[in-house]
Amino acid sequence: MKTKQLLILGGVFVFLLLVVIIFENPFGKSEYEKKVETAMPLFPDFDKEEVTKIEIIATDGTATLVKQDSNWVVTSMDNYPADSEGVAELLTKMGEFKNTQRVSSNPEKQAEFEVDSTGVEAKLMDANDKLLAHLFIGKITPGFFSSYVRAADSNDVYVAQGNLQSVFNKGTRTWKDRTIFDFNKGNVTELNISSPEETVELRLDANGTWQMLKPEASAVNATEVDTLLTTFSELDTDDFAEAKDNLAEYGLDTPQSVISAVLNDGTTATLYIGKEEEGKLYVKSNDKETVFRLFKSNVDRLLKKSETLKAENPPPAVETE
Fold first, then answer.
1. Taking a C-beta distance cutoff of 8 angstroms, is the pair 212, 218 a contact?
2. For 110-134, how does the pLDDT look when each residue is reduced to its tens digit (9 = 90+)?
3. Which domains does the chain have, with CATH numbers?
4. Which residues sit opposite 73 in a β-bridge?
5. What pLDDT, in 10s, does the model give residues 230-263?
6. DSSP state string for 12-72
7. pTM of the predicted model, to two decimals?
């Protein structure tokens, strides 16, 4: 009995000791915690609201982003709308850089951390082309969760959170806005899918229920229709097509398939689907001149067959004696 009581008392003591350590921290703060508390921003005067121009210089080319009114465009790509979420992420990261963890002050080691011309260089400017921040983003740290960064006017190399080269350099994905469609799926009243195999027509009835009119009148699988509308209304491209002389070269002069949604304000979102090359199909929306490319699997998610969209028939009643 005494042994059991001692074990219980010992367990209580250990529990109380852990509580004291966690909440009272009798041993004081760690050196890293002290560094975090006293850390200073790498760019103390940086204000993301003042940035109107961003220049990204990488080994695969230079991208220039400019803010026009409240929208960002890629001036190095014919003023194409820029990836607004990507720009917002970049500007947010700029404000998070701090001198918490310095790993080197030796200029001869900059190439080792790729915080020189071998990395990604970024210049952020205001409306008067005044340089607000200038830095180099290096390689990922051995732990894969951080990256090396260096302010251009300093030899100090610091560790910052995240895979930052992917934030600052989009590479072959480019800084272009990848949106094909972005509308409220709840505003769709008609949905039409035309393919070489069949034509499917869906309509929203007076009770707000989807019905199939073609290729045959039928109730529909509400889950399948909702999934299709979600995919179509939030459609992003997988790639941008290279410039060609005319739409015929993409197979878009006479599209092989078409999917179209009619909204309650009378507007229409239509996607024309052309030929396939290297596992991707050329596609074009009715409201953009740009030709996009989608993986075949993503096109298949849009070109639903009537058999998939139809409501499942209830099993036949079983007669019993």
1. yes
2. 999 999 999 999 999 999 999 999 9
3. 38-173 (2.60.40), 185-309 (2.60.40)
4. 66, 81
5. 999 999 999 999 989 999 999 999 999 999 999 9
6. HHHHHHHHHHHHH-TT---HHHHHHHH--BSSTT--GGG--EEEEEETTEEEEEEEETTEE
7. 0.77
